[in-house]
Amino acid sequence: MDLDVAQVRAFVRTAEELHFGRAARTLAISQQALSKRIARLESLLGTELFQRGGNGVRLTEAGQRFLPPARQTVAAADTAVAAAVGEERPLQVDVWGHLYAPMRTLAQVAGRAGELTLGHGRDLRSVATALLNGDIDAAFGRVHPPLPAGLAHRLVRLEPVDAVLSADHPLAAEPALRPHQLRDSVLWAPGALDRLDFLHQFADRFGIRNTATSVNLGLAHFLAEVAEEPRRFSLVPADVPLPQVPGVRSVPLVEPTPLYAWSLLWRSGIGHPGLHGLAAACAEEAGRHRWLEYTPVHDWLPAPPPRP
């Protein structure tokens, strides 16, 4: 049985969008052409891949089984075409968690990982969708549940986290703080807390009862908001270069020290040839700078990311 890659690609996009119109637009074809490709594929396979009804589109059991190898088929076809025409396309990498400056870490390995181009992801969900659609090759940020099927990840760095407080905060003069000392303070978050996995788990673990949210307009604006109210604090990885914002203090957290986990994320199966170089460069840098040291007695990690 010979599969038509265009038909398989049409299936993959529709499975990811669960909407024929949106899938057709991402492929720059008409919805009628998309439907014909999927119908021909279903006829060839002798089974339905989608259930179509008043409640929308969803995968059948056969469609769910077919999706992972179908993604690998499309990725392999793209790689084969690039190799045949001698195309040396740069590795396309996206980042998320921009307030915590993920490019600090990625920049340290970029020179040894070959040529990279960067995307503009907003959060893990949007970056995961871009990976599954084949719009990017890899991504870098904090991985947390729920992680869609079809993606793999590798832990790259565990970075200690400091508390940033208003200079008028009662604890601002302390040389170091234990997380539970912040229990009566207000955790200031750059967005809805249920979408900020690390801050949400920190608040639950250390009994932070008072939280408030803002809009992420960049680190300088965020820190200026922290400085406005004496009881506010937030968390920032220790190596993030803080802008010169008056009225803010950064204090190390100890016993335990929270660790922010940075991971490399990519689509499972055959991918861009540069992925191996990027992963190897990350591992080399992690070993050189002892990025993955973790002592359960002294450190705190949120619930681990899902296994790929």
Describe the protein.
The chain contains nine helices and twelve strands. The strands form two sheets. Strands 3, 4, 5, 6, 7, 8, 9, 10, 11 and 12 form a ten-stranded mixed sheet that branches. Helix 1 (5-17) crosses helix 4, helix 2 (20-27) crosses helix 3 (31-45) and helix 5 (103-110) crosses helix 9. The relative contact order is 0.15. The model has no long low-confidence stretch (mean pLDDT 88). It has helices at residues 5-17, 20-27, 31-45, 61-84, 103-110, 124-132, 197-205, 219-228, 274-289; strands spanning 50-53, 56-59, 91-95, 116-118, 138-141, 151-166, 186-189, 210-213, 232-237, 248-252, 257-267, 299-300. The protein starts with a helix and ends in an 8-residue tail after the last strand. Strand 3, helix 5 and strand 4 (116-118) form a beta-alpha-beta unit. By secondary structure, the protein is an alpha/beta fold. Helices cover 36% and strands 22% of the residues.
Question: Main attributes?
Answer:
two-stranded antiparallel sheet; alpha/beta; 308 residues; ten-stranded mixed beta sheet; elongated
Short description:
The protein has 308 residues and is of the alpha/beta class.
